[in-house]
Amino acid sequence: MVVIEFILQVLLGLTSLILTFFILLHRGRGGGLSDMFGGGMSQAVGSSGVAERNLNIITVIVALVWFLSIVGLGLITKFQVI
């Protein structure tokens, strides 16, 4: 049980960092954090619709793994026998 908890904690940490990175990669819809880092200039160049869709799908998958690791850790914590 300790090994599973450790794996879920590592998975949660990695997916948190990856999810933050993928969210910042999304194209801005005007005014915000992405424009501060040059997201406004990339709109003039234009980005591929396929790339944006793939980024959306990958972000949703990582978010689901992140959510499931939180639920798993919560269940382990709740039902842990001391």
TrEMBL record:
At the top level of its lineage, which domain of life is listed? Bacteria
Q: Where are the transmembrane segments?
A: 6-25, 55-76
Question: Which keywords describe this protein according to UniProt?
Answer: Cell membrane, Membrane, Protein transport, Translocation, Transmembrane, Transmembrane helix, Transport
Which subcellular locations apply to this protein? Cell membrane; Membrane
Q: What is this protein called?
A: Protein-export membrane protein SecG
User: Which Pfam families does the record associate with it?
Assistant: SecG
Q: What is the source species?
A: Microbacterium sediminis
MF GO annotations = protein-transporting ATPase activity
Q: Which InterPro entries match?
A: SecG
Major place of residence:
membrane
Q: Can you supply a Gene Ontology BP term from the record?
A: protein secretion
Q: What family does the database annotate?
A: Belongs to the SecG family.
Q: Which residues form a coiled coil?
A: none
Q: State its role.
A: Involved in protein export. Participates in an early event of protein translocation.
